[in-house]
Amino acid sequence: MKSVIESIEKLYKEIENEFERVGQYYNFSCFGCTSNCCTTLFYHFTFVEEFMLQYGLLKLDESTRLMIVENSKSYLLSKENYNERGKFKMMCPANKDGLCMIYQYRPMICRIHGVPSKLVFPNGRVDFYKGCEVIASKFLEFPYVLDRTNFFKSLSKIELDFRKKANKPINYKFKKTIAEMILSKDLENIHA
Ligand code: SF4
Ligand code: SF4
């Protein structure tokens, strides 16, 4: 899986660079933000990001890893029992005291979320995202945005390569929360 890891690390770096460029344009910073978006429920759509996440977890000390596993169980239980109106919100199981414990291995949406962005679909439809509530509340117009399109395309290519190598069905519709990815046993026989 060495080549897959290299490819996704390269992609993560490209996203990071573009995020920084767009962020600088808006003078954007998460520093001091009290509205931590790690409480947002995100879904993830690739095995390869689950693989990276678990690869990152293995690099943590055992007590941190166990804490994240226990947090993930509580997270799923709370989500299952959630029956209030409005979106489910709970701190991500990988977050401790406001910090991401798997920062280097966090999934793509965690890297993109925040700054204004757009996604162009093959049929020409364009979805536009204002960014997180902090940036969205400060500006009326967003002339410079992060374009998610090529990043998503690159991730799909890497995912395809990963599925072939890991012997996972190409058409399987992956959709998991971060807690489900952390607890998943789907890739336990796939090693870096
Ligand atoms: S992305 Fe926005 S909401 Fe999230 S921590 Fe940064 S400033 Fe706060
Ligand atoms: S993986 Fe890290 S950055 Fe993403 S939601 Fe969890 S704590 Fe936040």
Q: What is the number of helices? A: 7
Secondary-structure class: mainly alpha
Count of separate structural domains: 1
Main sheet record: 3 strands, mixed
Strand content: 5-15%
Low-confidence stretches: none
Helix content: 40-55%
Cross-sheet strand order for the largest sheet: 4-3-5
Q: What ligands does this structure carry?
A: iron/sulfur cluster
Summed over residues and divided by their number, the pLDDT gives a mean of 94
Q: Give the tally of β-strands.
A: 5
Query: How would the global form be characterised?
Result: globular
Q: How far apart are the termini?
A: 5 Å
Structural Rg: 17 Å
Question: Would you kindly provide a brief summary of this structure?
Answer:
This is YkgJ family cysteine cluster protein. By secondary structure, the chain is mainly α.
Question: How does this structure look, described?
Answer:
The protein has helices spanning 2-25, 47-57, 62-80, 108-112, 133-136, 149-166, 178-183, and strands spanning 95-96, 99-100, 117-120, 126-129, 146-147. With 192 residues, it is mostly helical. It has one domain. The strands form two sheets. The chain has a three-stranded mixed sheet with strand order 4-3-5. It has a two-stranded antiparallel ribbon with strand order 1-2. A hairpin with a 5-residue loop joins strand 3 (117-120) and strand 4. Helix 1 runs antiparallel to helix 6 (149-166). The model has no long low-confidence stretch (mean pLDDT 94). The protein binds iron/sulfur cluster (SF4) (2 copies). One iron/sulfur cluster binds at residues 30, 33, 35-37, 113-114, 132, 134. One iron/sulfur cluster is lined by residues 38, 92, 94-95, 100, 102, 106, 110, 178.
